[in-house]
UniProtKB/TrEMBL annotation:
It comes from the Bacteria. Belongs to the FemABX family. This is Peptidoglycan bridge formation glycyltransferase FemX. It comes from Streptomyces sodiiphilus. SUPFAM superfamilies: Acyl-CoA N-acyltransferases (Nat). Pfam families: FemAB (PF02388). Keywords: Acyltransferase, Cell shape, Cell wall biogenesis/degradation, Peptidoglycan synthesis, Transferase.
Length: 377
């Protein structure tokens, strides 16, 4: 199979993404407008007949004082990763990015390598000898993913020593997903553990109401999100980031008559917003993207009620998967991310391990300098 690669228009890029069951929300053309501090380019792969067979959103970040760039394809490119001729897909991409002034390329193949169901994770948590998710026998292994990793290594792509465990990568290596395909909402609800079902009922009894919010409500979201950031000790994004995200992502889908790409949900108790979350939609893949909650009224369980409503809405949209995004891979209750996996595993979904992010140094010296700079931040 002989492939050609060229820069494509945003329209071509979006048309290709829309032709697929799903792709990462970080590989839609409008994501370039969300990350407006990066220069962006859409790439397309074409077969001998001129038919488009792949796409990639590249974000270029300039090095201070020199016209050299880190080229980043978050959760992409969107190509046939299991193709035996993977090199024929990636070699022209590297040549093109080098011609654009890239000194290093970072990409995140959207390839799942292992899955663990909720039962396997719970057993791992209860076993004192098990420290990490990877110590638990996987419920499902994807042999072809190991072949992809081997091919990448042979081509000269590099991965961090720890394989990007947990949140070491720019994007999480481990995520938690709830399969929805061929399941009714009742079956999904039945898959929740007893605590989740009890908490949903508790929220209902306490009068928690979950609603879809509007663009104008984003300042209310921001307030709650900043409370969460202070409590959980992370640096919050500014309100302008979420406003921009809403505008550009929803403008992209509105232009072609699709459902909103981004939604906002509020859980109210006695009129007060006590939990909030953003949702992203691309084809049949729905993500719970950002979450926030108040320091008080936790006993009325607004987060459980909100997730249940979002899951039902994802199901109504025809989604195959509801993605709760990142989890850490540590199963010890002393780890600061342990509460996250404990909360998510109660939904009866599954943990998935992706191949992680890979780097290709086009200029080894500059790539090394960037590594040193990033480790000191």
């Amino acid at each position: 199979m002989s492939l050609t690669l060229r820069t494509i228009s945003r329209e071509e890029h979006l048309a290709y993404i829309r032709s697929l069951p799903s792709a990462s929300h970080m590989q839609v053309p409008a994501w370039a407008d969300v990350k407006s501090e990066w220069r962006a380019e859409s790439l397309g792969w074409f077969d001998v007949s001129g038919r488009q067979v792949g796409a990639g959103l590249v974000l270029y970040r300039q090095l201070p004082k020199v016209k050299r760039y880190l080229a980043y394809l978050p959760e992409g490119p969107v190509i046939n990763w299991f193709a035996p001729n993977l090199e024929e897909w990636l070699r022209p991409m590297l040549a093109h990015l080098k011609s654009q002034g890239a000194f290093s390329v970072k990409m995140g193949p959207p390839v799942v390598i292992r899955r663990w169901d909720a039962q396997a994770i719970k057993a791992g948590i209860q076993n004192p000898e098990v420290k990490r998710l990877r110590d638990v026998e996987a419920t499902h292994l994807e042999p072809r993913a190991f072949e992809v990793a081997d091919r990448l290594r042979r081509m000269g792509w590099q991965q961090g020593e720890d394989g990007g465990a947990g949140f070491g990568d720019v994007q999480p290596r481990y995520v938690f997903q709830i399969p929805l395909r061929d399941r009714s909402p009742e079956q999904v609800h039945k898959g929740f553990n007893q605590l989740w079902r009890r908490n949903i009922k508790k929220a209902e009894k306490a009068g928690v109401l979950v609603e879809r919010a509007r663009y104008e409500d984003l300042p209310v979201w921001q307030e709650l999100y900043e409370v969460t950031a202070e409590r959980d000790k992370f640096r919050p994004r500014p309100l302008s980031y979420f406003q921009q995200m809403w505008r550009v992502l929803n403008a992209e889908t509105a232009a072609v008559g699709d459902e909103d790409r981004m939604r906002l949900y509020f859980a109210r108790h006695e009129g007060e917003v006590v939990a909030a979350a953003t949702m992203l939609i691309v084809g049949k893949h729905v993500w719970y993207s950002y979450g926030a909650s108040a320091n008080h009224k936790r006993e009325v369980r607004p987060s459980n009620a909100m997730q249940w409503r979002m899951l039902q809405d994802a199901h109504a949209l025809g989604a195959d998967v509801y993605d709760m995004r990142g989890i850490g891979d540590c199963l010890e209750d002393t780890d600061h991310l342990f509460g996250l996996i404990q909360f998510k595993v109660g939904t009866g979904g599954e943990a998935a391990e992706y191949l992680g992010e890979w780097d290709f140094p086009l200029n080894k010296l500059l790539h090394k300098a960037l590594d040193i700079y990033m480790s000191r931040r």
